[in-house]
Amino acid sequence: MLLLLLLFPLAAYLVFDVTAKAYVQGLAEADLKKMLQTVQPLADQIFQAPAGTDAVTRREQRREEIAQAKEFLDQMKTLLRKEKNDTYLIILNAKFEPVYPKEFDSQPGTESLYAHYAAQLADGGQIVSEKHTERLTLDDRQYIAYFQQMDNARARANYLIAYTPVNNTDSLLSGVAKLVLLITAFLAALSLLAMWLVAGSISRPIRRLCNHAAQIGAGDFRLSEEKSSLKEIDALNLAMNQMSQQLSNYDTAQKTFFQNASHELRTPLMSIRGYAEGIQCGVFSNHQEAAGVIVSESARLTELVDGLLTLSRLDSAKQTLDLQPVQLSDFLSGYLKKIEGLAIGRGITLSLKERPAICAQADGELLGKVFLNLVSNCIRYAKTTVGVDVKKEGRFAVITVEDDGPGFAPEDAAHLFERFYKGKDGNFGLGLAIAKSSAEYMGGSIRAFNGSCGAVFELKLLLCGSDNRERFGRP
User: What's the Cα-to-Cα distance from 11 to each of 177, 183, 184, 442, rounded to whole Å?
Assistant: First the structure.
């Protein structure tokens, strides 16, 4: 922008200088063209007519030619008096002597033009053609001249020269161009000042926002109080504050997650270590019982580590995803049989409503984990029954898992899918967090709410044939 503003005055000067000179020449050409539009037809009308058709002597023919020339001169004088532009005529006879005007001082440039053409005609010089227009520079002045040799005009008016001087406006145009240069330079200076002020009003808040971004990168999530008259800057500041708040929440959640994960990992590890040391030191007489506890805690530890790894792969989008058509009724029925032993042990009845075959796009492994987590959670709190239903809602297949337990406490409802969240009478765990992340990874969604007689989990998946680009979670 600075370079453009510096070049603008020079460009304006050059453009004005060229266009002004072209304009002046154009005016001269237009004046000459306007006069020739009248002169040429008149000359053709008078001199092209057959001269002396009724004359019987050369003298009579001569008188008729003189009369034609006189008529032409009279009409030309009348025309020139009416015309108000700067166009002039020179008429020469057969001897190259001036017929009009008689006095060269009456018209500017007549002497120069006469001398130029008379020299070419008298000494046998070459004229370009009998009728032509040319540009001439004579005595440091420019002219646009039209030359025509008359037909059947041997007495007078043998040669017609019409011309218009191109006014020498170089000094005037040069002065005006310099004035234009000064004006544009002054305006460019004002533009530079305005640009500097405007740029400063934009760059200063942006620099402050850059510093704020650097603070966010360093872990300082304080909100910016930047205010600007530009709505774009305000929008950027709002977006950065939202980002800062989200990063702050994520950082807090990560710290809480690691604290809880450390706690959950430490508990089975301490139990395993304690029983192993007890066996080593001979504290336990029943080694089988101690070994059973170690195996049980190892399985719990393995399950926890597997959950952490699954969440890590889902968060980093490195979990293998193989979306295939899945017939939900048959698929869910098979997984209910796998968990039926847990339900019987707690005295819970599992049921799946019979529905027409519904096909959804899903990854079988992830869908199985999600479904088992939901059903096992319902079994933990159900009184007697856990029901499963599958139906269609628009472009989605909806899997509903419902129990007849006490439902969710109001303060727990908003945190059910948080990692290691522990509600009242609940347990630390990753099951529901994995279920939510897995559902979104497959392009679905999951939610939980209290139904008419207990807790309800609702899982939505895209039906087969639906556009898989429209997803709830990450692509």
Answer: 11, 13, 10, 62
Length of the chain: 475
DSSP code for 222: P
C-beta contacts of 153-156 below 8 A and 24+ residues apart: 153/47, 153/65, 153/68, 153/69, 153/94, 154/65, 154/94, 155/62, 155/65, 155/66, 155/69, 155/93, 155/94, 156/65, 156/66, 156/69, 156/70, 156/73, 156/91, 156/93, 156/99
Closest CA to 29 of 79, 86, 75, 93: 86
Sign of CA dihedral 438, 444, 448, 454: negative
Per-residue pLDDT tens digits for 358-388 = 899 998 888 998 998 899 889 988 999 999 9
The pTM is what?
Answer: 0.49
**CB under 8 Å to 369, separation ≥6 — which residues?**
310, 434, 435, 438
Instruction: For CA atoms 285, 289, 292, 298, give the dihedral sign.
Output: negative
**Which phi and psi (to 5°) does residue 298 adopt?**
-65, -40
Instruction: Return the number of other C-beta atoms located less than 10 Å from residue 111's C-beta.
Output: 15
> In the block, which residue shows the tokens 């899903």?
362
Q: Which pLDDT score is estimated for 384?
A: 92
Neighbouring C-alpha atoms within 13 Å toward the C-beta of 54 = 1
E strands in 219-365: 324-327, 349-352, 359-362
CA separation for the pair 321, 442 (Å, rounded): 7
Q: Which of 303, 301, 447, 431 is nearest to 369 (CA)?
A: 431
Q: Which two tokens stand for residue 14?
A: 């050059």
SS3 286: coil
pLDDT, one tens digit per residue, over 298-329 is 887 887 788 777 777 777 777 778 888 999 98
- 3-state SS, residue 389: strand
Q: Are 348 and 340 in contact (CB under 8 A)?
A: no
Q: Is the peptide bond before 101 cis (omega within 30 degrees of 0)?
A: yes
Nearest one of 52, 55, 65, 56 to 94, comparing CA atoms: 65
